[in-house]
Amino acid sequence: MPQTAPTRTAQSCPQCPIRHSAVCSLCGPSELAELDAIKTYQTFQAGDVIAWAGEPQTIVGSVVSGVATLSRTLADGRRQMVGLLLPSDFIGRSRTQVAPYDVTAATEVTLCTFRKRAFDEMLDRTMHIERRLLQMTLDELDAAREWMLLLGRKTAREKIASLLVIVARRDAALHRREVGNGVSFRLPLTREAMADYLGLTIETVSRQISALRKAGVVEMHGTRDVTIPDFGRLLDESGDDADGGIVS
Amino acid sequence: MPQTAPTRTAQSCPQCPIRHSAVCSLCGPSELAELDAIKTYQTFQAGDVIAWAGEPQTIVGSVVSGVATLSRTLADGRRQMVGLLLPSDFIGRSRTQVAPYDVTAATEVTLCTFRKRAFDEMLDRTMHIERRLLQMTLDELDAAREWMLLLGRKTAREKIASLLVIVARRDAALHRREVGNGVSFRLPLTREAMADYLGLTIETVSRQISALRKAGVVEMHGTRDVTIPDFGRLLDESGDDADGGIVS
DNA sequence: CGGGGTCTTTGATCAGGATCAAGCCCGTGC
DNA sequence: GCACGGGCTTGATCCTGATCAAAGACCCCG
Description:
38% helix, WH-like_DNA-bd_sf (chains A, B), RmlC-like_jellyroll (chains A, B), homodimer, globular, 2 domains, 4-stranded antiparallel sheet, DNA-binding, Jelly Rolls, Arc Repressor Mutant, subunit A, alpha+beta
């Protein structure tokens, strides 16, 4: 089934041998038989560590399904998530030997991976993959900067609302729907992962979700399934101006 | 005089017609006569706005001297700096019509700018500029992520110490010295800009600098000139582990 | 030299979120 | 059925950094 994400030029990935609803962000659009020759698929369980910060980097590839996180840890154990990897996002980078962050599977994750040496050699021969990587990296940079605004200046309540907006939009994009009133989706993150994302503690995350529920901004069914009765109200709670919304 | 930044492959820029101690990050290494044909120089005073978020993007180019900032503002006026542009950093991006952030001169700034349309056309013809832009963007992304760790998890005191470490390192790199005990440098930012950078208020910035001064970690001469008697102690205060130091 | 403005420092108080500490919900295995 | 454990929620208290307020330091310009 063909897929089109709005800001990315990703297409379906017909040659991928496994069943998945998402996009292999390189195989599809690149149309390079050479990529097929060096790719394999790997699956990780929720909680598995895909790569450790500071260790030699072994994996280059893109997320086919599931959610993974990038995070860094301070000396005393405080942790901050610095990247959220959703289907079609790229993991690892070429020509770098050491992984800069911990990469952890937040749900079951399937990756389309490439042998690093072969991948680097291919980059040297086929420049137009580099153009695509540049665009993807610029998108990530924009997302990182919106995230910095959130971390530096938003209240706990605004942070939670912003995260719900992001997940709702990505989820809608994945199913090629518009976000609007009454949208429902499942949170792909535990309370702990949300806290790491937002620079909060799990208690504060829990309290603020409860507060938004009591205020009627969100409806929770169980602990992970969310319905947004009025998307405009959620946007108001997120603290963003008109539509300078969070990218990615 | 030739310049070499450690993590970037920048070189001197002999053909630039103006006197500057820093690097034109594209003209130099690209060795493209075509770039010369479409470049001009522009100077801005401290406080000048170089581009407004949401307005059509007019400028593409790199910082030759001075310091500029990228920032975003929430609806109620809270502001967060999301990028710090030092000599050799690139401003603007190709193939994007709308500027994503406010760009402001923090000191007097000189830019080496290119006509946007001509620059985009050149990118289409000469792929290897794209490779260089990719590397620069990846460096920026790394810096943004270290910054997220700072914003999300560091205390005010650690934030100030981290900023001093960053400025000391960039300053040392610019003069091809090693950072070490007794280094001195001048802060290129006002207290307000530091607060925007760190997600703090100016009062807290001022208090924490005073605290570090009283603790003997830094010496201040006037309000902008800093000496670090013991760089290791400053590093300890920054909260970073061993040497996972802040990139860029 | 003096005056006004901007930038910075310092003080007093307040509040948002962290921390510490139970308890709850729900799936799992015995 | 029941105990166990992991993830989540709620409560009480504390503390860091924001806010409100005022006074110094510095600078440009007459």
